[in-house]
Amino acid sequence: DSIRRRGENISAADVERQLLAHPAISDAAVVGVQVAVEQEVMAFLVARPGEELAPEDLIALTTERLPYYAVPRYLEFVDELPRTEALRADKQALRERGVSEASWDREAAGIRLRRERL
Question: Phi first, then psi: what are they for 107, rounded to 5°?
Fold first, then answer.
């Protein structure tokens, strides 16, 4: 999966790999969602049982490890990811679901990223 955001190609697998590096995350799927006139990076996350995680912690982790344009704008915690018949995350279903009231928005939370890596 590749996401095109502001002229940059983003590998969904690279973003997922960094999110899964957090010990509280058991599963992750990253998709591009259309917001206004551009695509934004959105991550759907499954926390390990008994774990609670602040979205800001994941943003801090990905900001350290990814270029600024690949850091997800939206995070949504779900109980499980929808699956295809091949048992892969059903990214089409997640794209169609898109941003909802349950989604956490980095920009609405006041977190702005600089163009260079932090």
Answer: -70, -40
If you compute the radius of gyration of the chain from its CA atoms, what whole number of angstroms results?
13
Helix axes 55-65, 12-20, angle to 10 degrees: 120
| Cα–Cα separations (whole angstroms), residue 116 to 10, 52, 73, 79 | 16, 30, 17, 34
Query: What residue type is 93 in one-letter code?
Result: A
CA distances from 118 to 16, 32, 75 (A): 19, 23, 20
Average predicted confidence (pLDDT) for the chain: 91
Q: Is the pLDDT of residue 112 over 50?
A: yes
Phi first, then psi, for residue 61 (nearest 5°) are -60, -50
Nearest to 19 by CA among 51, 65, 54: 65
Tokens of 50: 């008994």
User: Phi and psi at residue 3, in whole multiples of 5°?
Assistant: -115, 135
Give the model confidence (pLDDT) of 18-42 as tens digits: 999 999 999 999 999 988 888 899 9
pLDDT at residue number 70: 93
Of how many residues is the chain composed?
118
